[in-house]
Amino acid sequence: MAKREIDEVSGTETTGHEWDGIKELDTPMPKWWLGMFYACIVWAIGYWLVYPAWPTLSGYTHGMLNHSQRDDVTANLATLKSARSVREAALRDASLADIQRNPELQQFAMAAGKTLFGDNCAPCHGSGGQGAHAYPNLNDDVWLWGGKLSDIQRTITVGIRSISPETRQSQMPAFGRDGILKMPEIADLTEYVVHLSGRVADARAVKRATKLFADNCAACHGSEGKGNRGMGAPNLTDNEWLYGPNREDIADQITNGHGGEMPTWSGRLSPEEIKALAVYVHNLGGGE
Amino acid sequence: MDSHNGQSHNDLLAPAMAAEGVARSDAVASNSAVNRKLFKSRVPIYPKEVDGLYRNLKWAMMAVTLSIYYLTPWLRWNRGSGAPDQAVLVDLAHERLYFFFIEIWPQEVYYITGLLILAAVSLFLINALFGRLWCGYSCPQTVWTDLFIWVETRIEGDRAARIRLAAAPWTAGKVAKRVSKHAVWLLFAVGTGGAWVFYFNDAPTLFHQLVTGVASLGNYAAIAGLAFTTYSLGGLMREQVCTYMCPWPRIQAAMTDTEALGVTYRRDRGEPRGPHKKGQPWEGRGSCIDCNQCVAACPMGIDIRDGAQLECINCGLCIDACDDIMMRIDLPKGLIAFDTEANVERRLADKPARFRFLRPRTMLYGGILVLVSAIMLFTLSSRHTLDLDVMRDRNPNFVTLADGAIRNAYTLKLMNRTGQARTLTLSVGGLVARSVNVIGVGEVKGSVPLAVDADKVRTLRVLVTVAKSDLAASHGLNFTLSDANGKESRNIAAIFVPGDVK
Lengths: 288, 502
Hints:
Structural class of chain B: alpha+beta
Number of domains of chain A: 3
Low-confidence stretches of chain A: none
Mean pLDDT of chain A: 90
Helix content of chain B: 40-55%
Order of helices and strands of chain A: EEEHHHHHHHHHH
Distance between the termini of chain B: 83 Å
Strand content of chain B: 15-25%
Strand order of the largest sheet of chain A: 1-2
Number of helices of chain A: 10
Number of strands of chain A: 3
Largest sheet of chain B: 6 strands, antiparallel
Oligomer: heterodimer
Radius of gyration of chain A: 35 Å
Low-confidence stretches of chain B: 1-14
Largest interface: A-B, 34 and 29 residues
Distance between the termini of chain A: 90 Å
Shape of chain B: elongated
Structural class of chain A: mainly alpha
Helix content of chain A: 40-55%
CATH architecture of the largest domain in chain A: Orthogonal Bundle
CATH superfamily of the largest domain in chain A: Cytochrome c-like domain
Strand content of chain A: under 5%
CATH topology of the largest domain in chain A: Cytochrome Bc1 Complex, Chain D, domain 2
Shape of chain A: elongated
Largest sheet of chain A: 2 strands, antiparallel
Radius of gyration of chain B: 34 Å
């Protein structure tokens, strides 16, 4: 055993360890510290008895309280649901105009709508509703099927080109792919659409395409190309292009007639949830 | 350890004679590894009650600090209807802190930080000037310990009686005394925890709830927890809290110096110490008669004559004990006094004693204290009762409208920190906007009045649209929120993103 060394000042034995001339005193621990150590052990044993603690072959020990955090969550969710039920009922019974007039109900709808949007809509429309190529931006003032609260609610409920029997339905024909128009005709029509949106286009092509547009496009898009919300036909004169603004994008759309699907949410979301979503989307800024 | 045990065994069997004519003493080194235990029991301390200036000061401070603690939650302060009328209240449920005329919101928690800085620097300054006055007179641990020792003295008697009682067998009388002591301690302990919860609730309401048994479980648990800590720390642990648990004795050791006042045994006058018989001359010896009264009076159980030490809480009770003895033996008081180590050294070197309160460290602490107080006072007095936060939407950063105009969206938080509902005026400027639309309110033409409830935040979304032709010059805007009489206003600048930067 190492030679014992006594610290001169305190008269206490040192541990023999030294750090740059500083030595550690081997002071005995106070008894209460030991007491706390034992108390912790006793506490731990008590905890095993009272709370779930040990895994067994077929499960685990449940403890005297039979406490379960899963049960807590279930109970808390039930409490939450009953706390929300009053406002949910109010939301169900209120007309969309009522919701707009009632700030408290509106706030409730907005909070619920925000969560629902993140869970269900954000994958396609973006977390801020900003959209993407082929997925509409919900913030702007361009609406294929209308931007009133009731229009938005209907679109969410039945979807577009969805499996719902009431679905909103529109189909841009694939003029090129199905051989309805020839390639030069499509090129002329592209120039015509570019011209419609106020951009510089080949004047001769535009002139050639005037009759083509009237024959093939005006039925849905209108003779002036302003679109038709009743049929979901987009306005071709504005700055908004779901499938891209460039000539090749437009030509591609005339050729192939892309049309995405907006699912029907009825059955997946409750009517109150759809109402809340409609209020939220309307309030993103583009609502009419 | 085996070798030590063997040695110990040999010791017991050692012959009584160490050598011929040399008797072996049975003395054993108190710190020998043989006797040394891994754990050390507390050495019981039975402080003798003293009478004198510092004891009276300590009583007075105890009365003041305990009164502040117990009575503060019951003070009322009228803030008008809808706001609590408790002068000091931490309203956790509604996220408000009330202190008389001040009401603090969670986002203003820097005032608490400021208070803590003030408290810390004050502690440093007081420590550098007068030693550990905090420890001796205001620390809850020593105040409650003092209270518990007072209870103990009333029930079990003074030091000598308590020592006798501790050694006495367990008779009915001893049991009665011990039980009543712990009962009174528990009473004070429950009272301590009970007062604490009133700071977080309306005191009269909660008191009624507590008594009728309908208060929330959290309140009873808080009372039980604080009662337990008060009882165990004030009654059972006492000085061990200061010596083992508290960081301040260690910190203050680094902050003090020889010019700091402290309870000091004037060894220049006291040494050499020793018993004194009546009629003997005082020349050539010190004033200390080694009566040990200073040790008997010490609640920390130390000997002040060993010099400044970690355990000393600077309460001055040894001064009272010593002064009493000095009077009895007709010597001047002040053998132990609030003095400095430097003065002891000066007198030993035949120089006059003096107090140097102005030292670099005291000036530094004082300077910081004045500076932080000034900043606190300034911010508190120029505090707004209305406030505005502006957060621009970043997802999407901007929205292009059908005609090529660009729209940015902002979330505004309008804060009304008064107890009255107010109508605040919001105006938007700094760019040529085609439209400014507050969702739920409507189009803003110049400015718009917005009602904000008492003591509430109103959140609004504002859409700012700039026409295509004005985009080039549109990079920023200002939101201004002002109250009806124009006394207060907040102006917040925000960025406007005019579309994709190509």
